Amino acid sequence: MTGAQGNSIDSGTPWSEALRGRVLIVDDDAGTGRLLALLVRHHGHHADYVDNGYKALDYLSENLADLVILDVMMPEIDGLEVLERVRKNPHTANVPVVMFSALSDPQFTQRAREIGANDYWVKASLDFQSLGHRLAVFLPPTKQVD
Fold first, then answer.
1. How would you class 74 by CB atoms within 10 Å of its CB: exposed for 0-12, middle for 13-18, buried for 19 or more?
2. How is 76-103 classified by DSSP, letter by letter?
3. Which of 116, 133, 137 is nearest to 43 (CA)?
4. Which residues on neighbouring strands pair with residue 70, listed in sequence order?
5. Helix (H, G, I), strand (E, B) or coil at 43
6. If one looks up domain 3-7+17-138 in CATH, what number appears?
7. Tens digit of pLDDT per residue, the chain (146 long)?
């Protein structure tokens, strides 16, 4: 897909009918973003990936998302600014947003929560199994995709 979705990885794979939640992944590191999107898909959810905050805002202005996984440190517009804009927009204000960062400083985590983050995941501490448990907090249950 192109346009606001930028680097979307949704390709209409055969298991698309099994997908339950729509997740937008925003990360300026393409390897991290695409890997996370594949893992989200493996857990039975639809995943779109964009590589910057402006594309995320464009995507959300045209598409519904059940969850946004948002990197913090990005060029042009950082994740905290994107989060603020998402929370101020009545169309997106209630969409769960999880900050996803290498930063684990408690003060930074607290700042993200004050702005409106629903959760804060540290990249280094996330593994496949814990991703599934964490997704289950925000998304409807699914059958795992093989």
1. buried
2. SS-HHHHHHHHHHSTTTTTS-EEEEES-
3. 133
4. 26, 99
5. coil
6. 3.40.50.2300
7. 333 444 444 434 444 444 589 999 999 999 999 999 999 999 889 999 999 999 999 999 999 899 999 999 999 999 999 999 999 999 999 999 999 998 888 988 999 999 999 999 998 877 767 788 888 888 876 554 44
Q: Which amino acid is located at 56 in the chain?
A: A
Per DSSP, 23 falls in state E
Which residue bears the tokens 């998304």? 139
Q: What is the pTM of this model?
A: 0.82
Q: Please give the Cα distance from 106 to 109 (Å, whole number).
A: 5
